[in-house]
Amino acid sequence: MNGFFSNTGNILFAAVFAIQFLAIVFTGLKNDRRALYYSNFVLLIGLVSGLFVTLSSKLFFALPTGPQNSLLNNWIRLDGLSFYFLFVIQLAAIPTTLYNFSYLRHYMEKKIGIKNFILFYILTIISTQVIVIANQAVFFLVCWEVMSISAYFCMILEKEKEEVQKGSFYYFAASHVVVFILYIFFFLLHHQTGSWFLSDYHLSFEDGAVISTIFILSFIGFGIKAGFMPFHFWLPQAHPVAPTVMSAFLSGVIIKTGIYGIIRTFLFIKPVPEWSGWLVLIVSMISAVFGVWYALAQHDIKKLLAYHSVENIGIIGIGIGIGFIGSANNLPAVEFLGFGGALLHTLNHAIFKSLLFIGSGIVCQNLDTRNIELMGGLVHRAGYIALFFLIGSVAISGIPPLNGFISEFVIFTGFFSIAGELKNYYPILMLIMVVGLAFVGGLAVACFTKVNAIIFLGSERKEVKHFHTTIYDYLSLGIFAALCIAIGFYPAPFVEIVQRVIAASFNIQPSSTLINMDWFYLSAIFGSIVLGIAALLLVKLWHHKKYGSRVSGAWACGYENLSPRMQYTASSFADEINTISGSILLYNKEIDKSEKPFPTPLKFESHSRDFVDRKLAMPAYGFLKSFISKIGIFNQTDIRYYIAFILIIITIYSLIAFLWT
Amino acid sequence: MDIEIIQGIISLLLLILLAPLFSGVVNKLKAKMTGRIGAPVLQPYYELKRLFRKETINASNSSFISRFSPILNFVAVIIAAAMLPVGFWKPLISFNGDIILFAYILGLARFFQILAAMDIGSSFEGMGAAREVTFALFAEPIFFFTIGSIAFVSGAASLYEIYHSIHLDNISYMVFVVICSISIFMLAVTECSRMPVDDPNTHLELTMIHEVMILDNSGFDLFLYQYSGYIKLFIYTVLEISFFNPFGKESYLVYAGIFIVIAFALAFLLGMAETITSRYRMKNIPQYLLFATAIGILNLLIFTFTQ
Question: Which residues of A touch B64 (CB under 8 A)?
């Protein structure tokens, strides 16, 4: 067995993490600005070199198998899936970290200490990377805890605000439910296989009950982290209050660890029973449809984007569901399309969601509000930011020629493939799914035309004195936007990566359905769109020269004193769609109807509340709270009672463990 | 060059060049039915020519989006037209899953048209955009249900193969296809802003959907919008005509005859609908669209269970 440092790849790998850990040291610097610049810079070097190591790894030549890919006594193991998620994490983390330079300056101006934030930010990034390569259950759980808790500490940067306390508590509570479920999950796995190593977990089809339990535990545990409905309620509470860098990383990357967990579980228990595929598919479809529908009703830009994460996690889940159904029926072609779509969408969502969050962060910081009803006309202030945000919006709506379309296209093809392979009642069910996904696309278009139009177009609703942007803003948004365009226009290499990942680590029969889709054809079509636009632009220029062009006021039936407040608002834009689903969205409008002879100022408000939060989570929490407060011991303020309580719990756990063995 | 590519180019050119003519025919028939003489059939061409020669005026508050959107709209509609099979000729763009690209590329055009409308910053355009986005949301499922159900029945995934799979061997299949074509017609009415969903000739901004979105466009921009509107109407017409493909199997001449007859029949239907119905209330339009979706679902269910 080769030692740890016998392999150049391993050394490079260790070096990458060493550099990232080194970044922590610099947070100890006295000066905030220096601490930020040095540690962030070192972290960036670590991430960029990490991305290169990941990319130059065997993922792109031959896939790593065998013992040389395990380090530290098999505690760390690199297979295709790990590599892919590592790639996604590092790719998304680099521009996010770049944005840190610009974002945190705002806090430094306000004299808010940021060193702790940087420290925990670095820890979050490192631990997220380690999670996907950890191969030992306890080590995995420890990293999971480090990631959850450091993300929590990042979130409470402005801890004196009440909404921050409330929102971050949602995250904290949800994270701990996840960890608790994962304890049981790994305990069961260990009990079944007698090993602590993830690579040893292979359950055979015979133990049906165990497989079902493990699958359900994993889907709930990792599903809460990923934000599937109905476990999504913490996302729209936590994302708005987190600092933008953290919400971008949380939404773009951290919730993907849930997806990683679900796919990893699939590798333990495959081939899965078919009902599990249907369960994932239906839950995901519900998440996708209602995630985006809730998003449409929001006025808070970050809350809106958080609901879009629910939608996109749903789309990823649909891909996983297709893969599961393929696995249950032993159809490698379907599996490749399903998992391929899911993995591609994971990458795509990490890119465009981070872009949108960072874009919204720049806007929110300059306008000092998250309410989109107060924004407007920013395209005239910051044209490039508007352009980048527009690229992200087109991508997230799944519209060609950008990257969101590519992954949705694979998923659509997956539906067609299931319908073709399995006759019977499958075509009808798949057709319903196709229509559902198309409906999601339509809602996303509604939502992102609304966001773009209200924030960037028209005229300014709130006076902005100076729109402040830095080079880092443009850099980080530019990288993300370039990636959106690159994957959209030239998907072939990315599809090939996904194909290799699945072929190598999913251990299924090779199938070329994914790679043989008409990718170059698609690139050619998108290219011709660009050519057509360029040609028409030239014609337009010529036309303007020959027949003239000018600018004049908009048509307002002859009225001249239009004010920015007379523009169409976000609520009225979305009102027609929201009213249709009012009862599920808990959407209510308050109109002040005072009928007086002379016109008086009127008031109109519209709200939407989360059904799961209001009707399920909060009542459950209230019940738990009142139940616990009835037990006298919890009302004590003396810390010794709590220590005693912890001791008792530990004793009980140890006794159970002792008796079990 | 490959014969298929030449055929594809010819059919695309036909689609682009004949599109205004079809609108002219619809308007002429409509005028006849309401007892007027009506504009000449070639009027849309004259209008395009007139618009092309006009100066372009943009609203003062608008940004690059409203200058860019007409171009994108036109290109997207042409790409969609290039995927459309005319008769038995293979379209210029045809691959597995192109129905998804077809729907989504029209979605791209819509996305930018809505943004361009909102770009003006006027409530008129805002209203139109909000309506467009709502109705488009309910219109998209109709397309996927009808074309998708034919696709799933035949196992094909490109528009060309889907329309090729339509045959006359089976009575229940024929009923199925006929009802699909009704759904597509209802979709065409919505997508091309005809009565009873939208009134293309209304004079009041408050009651418009599509027209109000392009209220502040003129010159070259309006030329592109109008032209892409004509092409879009013709695209949906050809989607409808292609259902009758099996009758024209024998020869090109028969097929051309069928094409013209069906096109006239559809123009007549559109004109008829605009003569005898009034526009629905905005509130009721989603119901109209859901009705079309429901027809699609029922149709597929009945067909599957009678097999």
Answer: 379, 383
Alpha-helical runs (H) found in A208-331: 208-226, 235-241, 244-249, 255-269, 274-296, 301-328
Q: With cut-offs at 50, 70 and 90, classify the pLDDT of residue A563.
A: confident
Tell me: do A321 and A216 sit in the same domain.
Answer: no
Residues A344 and A428 in one domain: yes
Average pLDDT over every residue of A590-611: 74
In a domain, A371, yes or no: yes
Cis status, amide bond into A230, omega within 30 of 0:
yes
Cβ atoms B84, B239 nearer than 8 A: yes
Q: Give how many domains chain A has, as a whole number.
A: 4
- Between A44 and B304, residue with greater pLDDT: A44
Distances (CA, A) of B155 to A69, A294, A413: 43, 35, 12
| Same-domain status, A428 and A440 | yes
CA distances from B278 to B26, B38, B195, B197, B200 (A): 17, 20, 7, 9, 12
Q: Are residues A187 and A104 in the same domain?
A: yes
Q: Which residue in chain A has the smallest CA separation from B137? A: A442
What is the C-alpha to C-alpha distance for residues A276 and A278, in angstroms, rounded to an integer?
A: 5
Give chain B positions within 8 Å (CB) of A380.
Answer: 63
Closest CA to B273 of B202, B209, B208, B195: B195
Given a cut of 70, whether residue A619 has pLDDT beyond it is yes
* Residues in chain A within 8 Å Cβ distance of B121: 376-377, 457-459, 554, 564, 567
- Residues A191-224 pLDDT 10s: 888 888 887 788 776 677 888 888 999 999 999 9
Cβ neighbourhood burial of A586 (10 Å; 0-12, 13-18, 19+): middle
Give the C-alpha separation, A326 to A324, whole Å.
5
Segments in chain B below pLDDT 50: none
Higher per-residue confidence, A442 vs A6:
A442
Contact at CB, A517 and B65, closer than 8 angstroms: no
How would DSSP label each residue in A502-543?
HHHHS------TTTTS-HHHHHHHHHHHHHHHHHHHHHHHHH
Are residues A96 and A204 located together in one domain of the fold?
Answer: yes
Q: For position A4, what pLDDT does the model report?
A: 46
Q: Give the residue extent of every domain in chain B.
A: 3-306
Assigned domain for A82 exists: yes
Residue A66: the pLDDT is 45
* Interchain contact, B118 vs A568, CB within 8 Å: yes
Predicted confidence (pLDDT) per residue in A100-138, tens digit:
888 888 888 888 878 888 899 999 999 999 999 888 888
**Residue B196: exposure state from Cβ atoms within 10 A (0-12, 13-18, ≥19):** middle
A458 touches chain B (CB under 8 A): yes
Closest CA to A264 of A292, A233, A225: A225
Range of the domain at A633: 611-660
Residues of A in contact with B120 (CB under 8 A): 458, 554
Average pLDDT, chain A: 85
| Within a domain: A524 | no
- Which candidate, A558, A380, A415, A405, places its Cα nearest to that of A495? A405
Q: What distance in Å separates residue B45's CA from the closest CA in chain A?
A: 18
How many residues appear in chain B? 307
Instruction: Give domain status of residue A260, yes or no.
Output: no
Encode A518-557: b = buried (16+ Cβ within 10 Å), e = exposed.
bbeebbebbebbeebbeebeeebeebbeeeebeeeebbbe
Please give the residue that has the higher pLDDT: either A357 or A622: A357
